[in-house]
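Write out structure tokens for Insulinase family protein.
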Amino acid sequence: MLMLRNVIVFFVMLMAGLAQAANGAVPRISVLKNGMTVAVIEDERFPLASVRLYVHAGSAYETPEQSGISHLLEHMVFKSTQKRQVGQAAKDIESAGGAVNAATSFDYTVFYADMPADRWLVGLEVIQDMIFGAKFDPEELASEKKVVLSEIDRGKDDPDNVIFQDLQALLWPGTGYERPIIGFRNTVSGFTGEDIKGYISRWYQPQSMLLVVAGKVDAGEVVQQAEALFGGMQNDRTIMPPMPLTLTPGVKPEIKVEFGEWNKVYLSVAFPTAGMRAPEEAALEIFAQLLGGDETSRLYRTFKYEKRLVDEISASSMTLERGGVLYIGATLDAANLETFWKELLANLAGLRVGDFTDREIERVKLNLEDGLFRAKETIPGVASKFGSFVFYGYGIEGEANYLRAASQVDRAELQKVMDGVLRPGDLRAVALLPKDAQGKVDAARLEKAVAAVWPAAAGSAKAQNGSGREKKAEIVDLGGGRRLVLQPDAALPYAAVSMVFAGGDTLLSPQDQGLAQLASSALTMGTASRGAVEIQDFLSDRAATLSAASGRDTFSLEARYPTRFAGDVLGLFAEVLREPAFAASEMDRARQSQLADIKRQEDEPMGLAFRKLFPFLYASGGYSFTRLGEPERVAAFTPDDARRFFTRQMRLPWVVSVCGDFDREQMVALAKSLAELCGPAEPYAFAAPEWGKKREEKLTLAGRNQTHLLWIFPVCGTSGADTPGLELLNSALAGQGGLLFRDLRDKESLGYSVTSFLWQSVNTGFLAFYIGTEPDKAARALEGFSRVAGDLRRQGVPDVEISRARNLLWGDYQRGRQRLGARSSEAASELVHGFGMDHKREIIEKAVTLSGEDVKALAGKYLDPDKAYVMRIDP
């Protein structure tokens, strides 16, 4: 189950809907006799289908006494039904090769299943049974309430979650939006099965539901099956659409300051706005993007890039059904808070539409349109975007109407939005500060600054004038250890290019830990002829991206762009490699960001765990390094250090891979020029690192609520013959229908998050069991890990679980490679590691032929408690 904690991301994504699938199919909208709406989008690009059932029932529909019941219902539908035992719903979906989940927000709950195309009906039938056949067994309810209570505690460890819940109460007092979606401990603890059944009876009416099915399906058959499964339901009351909230100008700002075990200051500033379908909705989105939407935005350029007062800053517009919010979020050092606060207020107070150029405004509009095409890359994206527009009343032409409205937004409309939203009396803010800042900052001091810097009497300014199926792939050998992969796919007018080198952290000495990451961050921040700002503007003007990354044994440069800008973007791609600047000023900015990332990692339990995991597991070499390095050493790196690393990195083997709609000759010419630039590759061998001698690592993160446990088994690398079996074993263990989830969560309620994961490089790897639990349950959780591993060694995996794991592996693989960038990156990575470009597919194909006895043998070989490593993070 998934609660939409970061709801802002969803509503920004919502703003790009669609009227057609990527293949041009027009959606079919039908209304069943009982008033339930069914939308079908036929899209044959992939052998996949996505099923989504939206219900107009979320936390905003709850009474104060019901707070959290929508979310608890979302959990309980995964328990027993009239047809299925506990966990069987997820198991049936995963056994068919699909994935099932659900999400609760303010105005809706959505249940979804992403399936192989020939099994879409399984997804639809399971969703119907989960919701309307749920038993709400008292013992299961008691068990799941413990899980939700644990999730509530877990949320208190996440600064973003804490801040947003505090802002809800400040922004929307007296409404359903003021309460957290997950509810409170006292309300959740008190719910009974009858409470949940009553809630379903009240809100789960056919007239309030939308079924969306997208993918390689037949629309007529979908409607027929929807009628068979849902047509017997009847409405027993009339549900009136909710009324928008009244926007009354505020009298004074309201600010809340909290102190805790944080390394950074987490600050959010919000202003209430109109909600969905408001006439100014498109202008609000454009203004938010201009203000803080990306690296070209005003707030980012001013406070992150130029003044360097913050680690991160962004702005977004979130529109809900009854209201909305303009949201600004920043992360910074406590020492910078007072200066940043005053300068942010002055910036907002003096902001005028004339401060934005025509180029900036047109760039934002282009990127809003770009969001539409990016959504169409995946079948779930098609279903989610179209479903959201129809569900919220925008209609089948929601995309076209929204983009038309956005294209027509002018300076007068933008200024009107700015004047209506940026009012000091409406400002609401929450700041989380480190404990050692107590006594230096408080809410009264921040509110006083608002009155001094941004008087409410300040007048507002007037507007100023200022195709098809994927074709066969081709591999071109360029000689000297350099290769080019061509993967045509003209379904969308986009392409993605990935250049992957061998090397990365393995090129570093111990004292250079973090240098590869720093060099990758600085690489795209300047060339001999362009600075970082110019590059950011260049890319944003073309709705393109260019990024570099360093891994434990690779280094990569990737670009994604509309085909019509291929010449421009590929030219910059080559320029970055040919003439990297590594300017001192940009290195300073990259260094500042990396040091901030280290602190942020150490603010979150799992961030801390993964920062310390590899140094704990491995004794030496690049695999034993902290990816971001140690702060004191990172602070000392110079531009010459970055140049030294990158010069060596360029001499190692690489593969360039392109996927999408591209010109073959143009790509061959680019690859040949890069091969000439780099010269013949130096020999490189992927290492087999030595494992660490220490078997247990205990870490502490004060002020948190949960204990996090990792039980880790060394396994072979991807070159090993056991890799297909390990993939199958991990698939049997992981997921909501997996053995770990079923035993430790469903049966014993030991934690909210329970899973396994497999990590491998060429010659090394590990399989890890994970759980986030309450500290007093940690011992039982470790016993549960041991019991599951013991059962696997003695009994293996039952045939029914093997079938589920096989299908889940296949489905996950297909879903994971829908995006152009995923396919280009996969091919380049596999080849540079010494495999064929279809190596991953071949592993999956081999895995689905294995039996439970094969997996039993692997469990006996690898799941040895005497060889396991244990990492524990306690509060």
